[in-house]
Amino acid sequence: MIGIIGAMDEEVEQIVEAMNIERVEEKAGMKFSCGSLNGSEVVIVRSGIGKVNAAICTQILCDDFKADAVINTGIAGSLDASIDIGDIVLSSDVLHHDVDATGFGYPLGQIPRMDTLSFEADKKASGNSRRVLQRSASSGWCACGTCCEWRPVHIR
Question: Residue limits of the Nucleoside phosphorylase domain (predicted)?
């Protein structure tokens, strides 16, 4: 079974409309639409915005729906000026850009006690996605986290 997550209704509603829905289950305030899409068993869900909501949703897909794969789809910003609105980007790696444990000797973005800075996307799934698209898509790091400027406040 394939789990498909989008943070907002706008990111999943067309996929839900295209699928054959067999049932809808509600868990943790999220509606999981279960059924088939193009011959594959799928569960599609709007997780809500943020990586905590995405993590909760992914865990439910794995534990309760026994997902073999989870695809996160949706709208994103880009730090690369060559990527335009409507472009498709396949993530090669995911990293946390808002984690800063540099004061403890870790590189910016690395979670303490983790052996890696980024988490590599599944190569088979990425290759299949490229073949389905039948054209080249951009690929690169997907940085998740809060996009804001941090200004430390020093209190005496």
Answer: 2-125
